[in-house]
């Protein structure tokens, strides 16, 4: 058994990561690729929870900009995360990995309701737990969901899997070729410098609960394994 730096992790997986190059909708091949990597990491003995976003289907901010009531738009976004949760569950179970989807919005016909102690029990039994439906309340992002659930399950770290970006920069590296990458930051650095790692609510919650973050490129296979084994990749925020 390899020596793990992080035994219990919460992976924040964006909806766009499940869409592949299309950027919207579902890419079964991308889901299969992600599931195979998660299976390899899980086999190391890592207890793994996932918070999945919904940006490949719907973003609450999009609806708000179109004139929708913010709360209504956010609820649609929560439903999008549940669809993605079921999608990644199917991909994982096709790889033989036992999973449970737990939703913050009650949908007993398709997933379990979120109960903290039950989630911890699933993790202890070696199941991957997928947290869907956000926090169950509007005005809170899936970043905040990640920080909240990580605190609730006593996760050792939040893994922020980015789509094509290998860490935190002082500017958008896709636009600014001279953008500087940070290897290490504090949560206070993120807040005071206005760096777009997580929203401010999520950053504050992570800081208050002493939960480190590792921000890395999801598109490079093997990166999750490298992180849990303690290899320094991406940007660490603590």
Describe the structure.
The longest helix has 25 residues, at 70-94. Helices cover 37% and strands 18% of the residues. The strands form 2 sheets. A 9-stranded mixed beta sheet has the order 4-3-5-2-1-6-10-11-9, with helices on both faces. The chain has a two-stranded antiparallel ribbon with strand order 7-8. The chain is an alpha/beta fold and 238 residues long. The chain has 8 helices and 11 strands. The two termini are 27 Å apart.
Portion of residues within helices: 25-40%
Helix-strand sequence: EHEHHEEHEHEEEEHHEHE
Instruction: Count up the helices.
Output: 8
Spans where pLDDT lies below 50 across 5 or more residues: none
**What would the CATH topology be?**
Carbamate kinase
Number of strands: 11
Strand content: 15-25%
Structural class: alpha/beta
Cross-sheet strand order for the largest sheet: 4-3-5-2-1-6-10-11-9
CATH class: Alpha Beta
The CATH superfamily is Acetylglutamate kinase-like
Number of domains: 1
Termini gap: 27 Å
Radius of gyration: 17 Å
State the CATH architecture: 3-Layer(aba) Sandwich
- The average pLDDT score comes to 92
**Biggest sheet character:** 9 strands, mixed
Shape descriptor: globular
Structure summarized in a few sentences:
This protein has eight helices and eleven strands.
